Please model this.
Amino acid sequence: MREVIYYATMSLDGYLADAQGSTAWMHGAANEDYGFAEFYRGVSGLLLGRKTYEQMLDTGDFFPYADKSVSVFSSNTNLKRAAENVEIISDTAPEVFVARLKLQDADAGPLWLGGGAQLASTLLAAGLVDELQLFVQPILLGAGLPLARGPELRKQGLELQECMKKPGGFVKLRYRTVKSWRSDI
Model:
């Protein structure tokens, strides 16, 4: 079965974007990719929410993920497709679509849940996220879009797999989700 990896950068206080929805505060050390190139080579596709996808489109004419399958979840069926590999998913619940994807082509690499706190929360609540790889940037935003949110999100146990200091004061955290949560974790 294919895995879903939630791979994201967040502020120290747990936000993916600031109160205005901007990620302009994100930056890294010069000439440092923090292992992204290796991670990206290993994934077979991307899962994106509409807002994250639209932010990517707003950055210019170049779509950086034209070599992978990209599933964008949106009720807007007229959303612009940045490349032929982009599929707009509007006719089914994200958790149903992703559950089917996980069962298809077991030899394919994992799926990268690349953005959208709402999408991430839905997939976490459905038990479809297998791993979280989080890069914590040393900045406090005070408000913004949290890593996960919503009434459907339930208590989720996580098992720490890796904690690594990175250049620029970043910390990489890698967690596996625990399928049956226990209070003694």
The two ends are 26 Å apart (CA to CA).
